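help with these tokens:
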Amino acid sequence: MSMFCYQCQETIQNTGCTVAGACGKKADIANLQDELVRQLKILALQYECKSEGINEAGLLTMQSLFMTITNANFDGEKIQSQIDKVKALQSCGSCCCAAKPELPAGVLATENEDLRSLRELLIYGLKGIAAYADHAAVLGKENPDIYAFAFKALAATTKDLSVDELVGLVLECGKVAVDTMALLDGANTGTFGNPEITSVKLGVGNRPGILISGHDLLDLKELLEQSADQGIDIYTHGEMLPAHYYPELKKFEHLYGNYGNAWHKQNTEFVSFNGPILMTTNCITPVQPEYANRIFTTGMAGYPGVKHIADRKPGQTKDFSEIIALAKTCP
């Protein structure tokens, strides 16, 4: 087999994808993701004994795991760049930094199915934590305890632990996930206000529009600010639908409504949407030629050949001017 991935419910015959992913990723991307996780395990072995000075490596770990979740990033160059960033931090200078171990990459490196399943369950739990933690960090909220657990858990997947020990870590992972959701909830409500029951329009208007999908609410806010009074309407899609119930987002009159259905209908709904599309996170599916020249990614999302909006610099916003300008050219 050229790859093995069973991290989501889409897997072929519910056993695993071995030639190409049902999500659309090819074997080379799956193997790069495996290598990124392997490098994160090496980093974790060097940081698991540290209690201070871990935020940089911790946030990088969250971003890297986030990049490997289903339908987030298909761009091999960006994944390789992330691998290089992780390698660059693999020297913390503490007593636990022994020589870098020779760890195997890939799910099937663990032969015992019970141990393999528990190790992978732990990693997939960490990937969920990573998404929440990264979104919270974007809004200025971090918790070093979350990073410390990530190092502990990743390092544990390289060790000869018993089933009972791994079950304990999986349960602890669940607790940390709840803590991380609380961190993100505080970040969201502190920034955008407490959610309110809201009616959302499902139709379309007669002005040029931009479609924004994913989970990054700050991206939406900055897009709304930059597109205000420009004669453009903003439509949410998929995972961005909950944005409508936050007071600091719904106050923008040109946040017109929600367009389309679930993520898996992109190949038809993105074709019919006559305007630019911004993917802030998952879920992005294989991009079709009909809209390839008007779809953008940002954050941890990525797709080869698709324009990527750069991260914001400290104290600044992202620059969405290219998307806004493109929207104005669409009838």
Q: What stands out?
A: Residues 12-191 form a domain with the Substrate Binding Domain Of Dnak; Chain:A; Domain 2 fold (CATH 1.20.1270.20). The chain has a mean pLDDT of 94.
